[in-house]
Design goal:
- The complex is a heterodimer of chains A (86) and B (464).
- Chain A contains four helices and no strands.
- Chain A has one domain: ACP-like (Non-ribosomal Peptide Synthetase Peptidyl Carrier Protein, Chain A), CATH 1.10.1200.10.
- The longest helix of chain A is centred in the N-terminal third of the chain and has 16 residues.
- The N and C termini of chain A lie close together (9 Å).
- The radius of gyration of chain A is 12 Å and the shape is globular.
- By secondary structure, chain A is an all-alpha fold.
- Chain B is an alpha/beta fold and 464 residues long.
- Chain B folds into three domains: 173 residues, FAD/NAD(P)-binding domain (3-Layer(bba) Sandwich), CATH 3.50.50.60; 103 residues, no CATH class; 126 residues.
- Chain B is 35% helix and 22% strand.
- Chain B has 15 helices and 18 strands.
- In chain B, strands 1, 2, 9, 10, 11, 12 and 18 form a seven-stranded mixed β-sheet that branches. Chain B has a seven-stranded mixed β-sheet with strand order 7-6-14-15-16-13-17, with helices on both faces.
- The longest helix of chain B has 22 residues.
- The two termini of chain B are 23 Å apart.
- Classes of the chains: A mainly alpha (86), B alpha/beta (464).
Chain lengths: 86, 464
């Protein structure tokens, strides 16, 4: 299922950016900053990893759209569809 | 050969900036004129021993599990694991002004209790002061440049307490004489007292090796004994870096950790042709440091402190002295007095004092050697105050001066905390030339690493 694949893309990136974060119980609708104790430097790295791995650009004004795992999926779905041949 | 970025200097800030860029597939080359990496926080081998320069302690130590402090943030940004550094906490340190002492550990409560006991009239003020410090973000820049001395004298009654709090913070460190900006004071105070001091079990190489490994593993190029001779400029952009060896590296961006004035001098034509007297921007604060190697652990000779900030007067005078060395105040550091260092075979005590570069720089070889011997004697005298039997146990000594610092790091006049003028945003008049390290504003090992990370993030990665 597309959603699950995109969730995994994001979680895999978070695992690299914040290796000590506990990813076993991430809730889709709670802000990632709050449940995983991530800060703006971590978010910059998520954006940088998306660019590095998938050549996706996320302009600064779109950063708030990555606040939760669910909103990440919504935002990234169209951008990742082509890249992942979904 | 074209690079996305050339970084001048393989010190802490250069390596950190390099890692950030290499992590995200930028083609980056670090050029370093010395044969060792580390810059102001490097090391050297002599007589089968390794000596750290710079590192007395890593500040900002927090226990594992904390995520939102500068140290864990840095480890994440640099993709280093805490385990790689093998950090050992301090055993305990003190600020000692002739009769009076303020002991402190990595538990802030120890210092708070000392102040409550020793300065009861200021106990409540200290609690409020901590709350005020808490509101200052790490590395925050204050455009109004509020004075630390001003805030301290508005907060505390006892002038001795003010001096005793300024002393360690200025040593770790202030680029300006006599006073410093309150925002910088807050950053450094919290780094030492609210967080803590630690040392990699292997010393500075315990941090340098993981940094270099990470940089290379991400594809970064590191060229040692390969100094930058010139930064080529066309219009208001840099186009490349000419190396001492002759080759030119073309690049889109240059990040320099050489220092503000030092970098200016590297640029074709200088970048501020109508600037005032260049000497006005030179940092005046440099140091001498003596290493006393002992055949016993200092703790067995009666000295169990990790770091002692000492001052023989009531007022702490942090300034370039007229004499070659100002013996009235300084820092003693004992690497043996960290946790898990009991198996280290020899003792080491380091004595650091403020020094006047000019009084050392102009001497011929014999006079220079004689002056070093004189101050090595002074180091024995100082060590004797804490370890009466120390002279019998010294097996080896070494010493460096402001001249040594300048010669190995290139920082003008050996100014370890750089110019009193900082480029807080890292920008220069040239569009694609940025500063990181000491003259960008953050000092010390953690400060330099954070500087490299933030300057690379802000000026190269987050760009269009």
């Amino acid at each position: 299922m597309i959603e699950q694949q995109i969730r995994n893309v994001v979680l895999n990136i978070i695992a690299v950016v914040a290796p000590d974060a506990d990813l076993s119980n991430v809730k889709g609708d709670v802000r990632l900053r709050d449940q995983l104790d991530m800060d703006s430097m971590d978010f910059l790295d998520i954006v940088m990893e998306l660019r590095k791995r998938y050549k996706i650009e996320v302009p600064k004004e779109d950063y708030p759209l990555l606040a939760t795992l669910d909103s990440c999926v919504t935002y990234l779905a169209p951008k990742l569809k082509a890249v992942l041949a979904l | 050969m074209h690079y996305d970025a050339v970084i001048i200097g393989a010190g802490m800030s250069g390596l950190a900036a390099g890692i950030r860029l290499a992590l995200f597939d930028k083609r980056v080359c670090i050029v370093e004129k010395h044969y060792a990496y580390g810059g102001l926080n490097s090391y050297y081998n002599l007589n089968g021993r390794r000596f750290d320069v710079g590192l007395h302690a890593l500040t900002n130590y927090v226990p594992p599990g904390r995520r939102s402090a500068p140290l864990p943030k840095l480890l994440r940004q640099l993709r280093l694991s805490r385990d790689e550094l093998d950090l050992c906490e301090q055993r305990g340190s003190e600020v000692r002004f002739h009769g009076r002492r303020l002991r402190f550990t990595n538990d802030l409560k120890a210092l708070t209790d000392e102040i409550t006991r020793g300065f009861p009239g200021d106990a409540d003020n200290f609690v409020e002061f901590l709350e005020r410090l808490h509101e200052v973000e790490y590395g925050e820049v204050d455009k109004d440049r509020l004075s630390a001395r001003r805030v301290l004298s508005d907060t505390f009654h006892d002038p001795l307490l003010i001096e005793m709090l300024l002393c360690p913070v200025m040593y770790y460190g202030s680029p300006t004489e006599g006073d410093m900006e309150f925002a910088d004071f807050a950053t450094i105070f919290k780094s030492i007292f609210c967080e803590g001091l630690a040392r990699p079990r292997q010393g500075i190489v315990g941090l340098l090796k993981p940094l270099v490994r990470r940089f290379r593993a991400c594809g970064g190029k590191l060229r040692m004994q390969c100094g930058a001779e010139r930064i080529h400029v066309r219009g208001n952009r840099v186009t490349g870096v000419k190396l001492q060896a002759g080759e030119t590296l073309n690049c889109d961006t240059v990040l320099s950790s050489a220092g503000l004035l030092e970098t200016m001098r590297l640029c074709d034509g200088g970048w501020m042709p109508d600037a005032g007297d260049g000497a006005a921007k030179t940092g005046r604060l440099s140091f001498v440091e003596s290493f006393l190697v002992l055949d016993k652990r200092p703790a067995d000779l009666g000295f169990d402190q990790t770091v002692v900030f000492f001052c023989d007067q009531d007022a702490f005078d942090y300034a370039c002295p007229d004499e070659p060395v100002d013996l009235r105040s300084g820092v003693i550091c004992c690497p043996n007095n960290y946790e898990r260092h009991d198996d280290v075979p020899e003792g080491l005590v380091r004595v650091t004092w403020l020094a006047n570069y000019d009084r050392w720089a102009t001497l011929g070889a014999d006079a220079y050697a004689a002056l070093k011997r004189k101050y090595l004697e002074a180091a024995f005298d100082r060590a004797e105050k804490y370890m009466p039997a120390v002279r019998e146990h010294v097996v080896f000594t070494d010493m460096f001066t402001p001249r040594t610092i300048e010669s190995f790091t290139g920082h003008i006049q050996g100014a370890v905390y750089g110019s009193p003028q900082k480029c807080r945003d890292g920008r220069t008049p040239l569009e694609n030339l940025f500063l990181c390290g000491t003259d960008q504003g953050l000092v010390g090992i953690i400060g330099a690493l954070m500087s490299g990370v933030t300057m690379a993030n802000r000026h190269v990665l987050a760009g269009p």
